[in-house]
Design goal:
With about 260 residues, this protein is mainly beta. It is built from 4 helices and 23 strands. The protein has one domain. Strands 4, 7, 9, 10, 12, 14, 16, 18, 20, 22 and 23 form an 11-stranded parallel β-sheet that branches. The protein has a 10-stranded parallel β-sheet with strand order 1-2-5-8-11-13-15-17-19-21, with no helix packed on it. Strands 3-6 form a two-stranded parallel ribbon. The N and C termini lie far apart (about 50 Å).
């Protein structure tokens, strides 16, 4: 049973002062708009089977991971925060936003139904994963990764079960891995710097796909690897990968994240 939780009680939970929640992780319901600003949360947090109307974290610092599992999230926003790992799994969500973070390690979304994802303006990150079994209407991933601030070997991984429209614009990461382009979807990459660009199982014959401005970080070592992806092979003929010296095509099963073997 969901427990209705007000602002003050939510603060106690987030700061680790509610020992019952830390032990049992009881399900909560938070109604209305809640804005949490300039706060430090010292412990790992897991919200299971919870319900949130609209929660926004502004300029907050998380010293532990935060995860949402099996929950309903109308709107969840992290703006200007410093984060460890964020995990959204098996949730129903109208909109998830990660914007202008100071730093985030891993931001993972899996097996969720989401109307819109916004991941923009995050200079320092280790991994963004819009992973398997997600059903997404629209997603914008833009202006992420800044060489002077990002000390991580960063990855952006895109592999939802279904999406209608997804745009990646002006991003930079060591690795870009796209694991699906579905039928009748719209997928755009406009401006991307990476050392490994990997496409696997991208075969949406009726998809609207547009790539431009793909550039290597290190010209001598960068690679494009195309695995079981006829739709991407068609695009190769138009010269979208001409800035990369090393382009490989494979027809074989690919284990998730087996990057070293594929690129070698």
């Amino acid at each position: 049973m969901l427990r209705s939780t007000g602002y003050k009680q939510l603060i106690r939970i987030l700061k680790g002062e509610d020992l019952e929640f830390r032990i049992t992780q009881y399900a909560i319901k938070v109604s209305g708009v809640v804005v949490l600003e300039d706060m430090v949360f010292p412990h790992a947090l897991t919200f299971r089977n919870c319900q949130f109307d609209q929660v926004e974290f502004r300029n907050c610092k998380f010293l532990g991971d935060i995860s949402f599992k099996g929950s309903r999230l109308n709107r969840l926003t992290f703006s200007g925060c410093q984060l460890k790992d964020v995990d959204v799994e098996k949730c129903h969500t109208q909109k998830i936003s990660l914007v202008n973070s100071v730093q985030v390690q891993k931001f993972h979304i899996g097996a969720s139904d989401i109307n819109h994802i916004e991941i923009t303006g995050n200079p320092a990150f280790e991994a963004f994963e819009v992973a398997c079994e997600n059903n997404i209407l629209t997603a914008l991933i833009e202006n992420n990764g800044q060489s002077s601030k990002n000390s991580f070997k960063s990855t952006i991984y895109i592999c939802p079960e279904r999406f209608d429209q997804m745009t990646l614009k002006n991003n930079r990461s060591e690795i870009l891995h796209v694991g699906t382009i579905g039928q009748f979807s719209s997928f755009e990459i406009d401006g991307y710097n990476a050392n490994l660009v990997l496409f696997s199982n991208c075969n949406g014959n009726n998809a609207n796909v547009h790539f431009q401005g793909l550039q290597p970080i290190d010209v001598d070592s960068a690679s494009v690897c195309i695995v079981n992806s006829d739709r991407v092979l068609e695009l190769r003929q138009s010269g979208v990968f001409n800035s990369f010296r090393n382009i490989k095509n494979y027809e074989q099963p690919l284990q998730h994240r087996n990057y070293a073997r594929i690129a070698g």
